[in-house]
Specification:
The chain is mostly helical. It contains six helices and no strands. The longest helix has 29 residues, at 103-131. It is globular and about 50 Å long.
Length: 158
Amino acid sequence: MTLTVVLALAFLIGCVCGLRSMTGPALVCWGAHFGWLQLDGSKLGFLHNNISLAVFTLLALGELVADKLPFIPSRITPGPLVVRFLFGAVCGVAFCVSSGAAWLLGAILGGIGAVAGAYAGYHLRYRLTTASGLPDIVVALVEDVVAIGGGLLIVSRF
């Protein structure tokens, strides 16, 4: 796999984290579990154990439910945005570690992808619900499918 492809995938998994912050790390754990990502022997090797797999999967499922609740803060407020940036960076690093590429580029692109995904997802969801009159729950569920399906497609490329 070329460096350009690895870095593009690092950016894209960051975008997934921007949509759903826990989906990216959960899918990285699943990717390691299925052998798509080779993280053993690295500092991210903990993502390839059953405890991490269970914890991140449960957190991702919880986030899918919590996202629909009215009291959850916006993804583009500072706290949630920083978390998305950090998870995007970690996922980007995991891709680079797995492919033997420079981890710093993966961290930067994964983090930038998370911010881009957060803003794009926020504004698209806002426009779809206000301009078209679609119920927020419908748009949120489509966003869930895009995050999970897109993230699975991205992770499985390794």
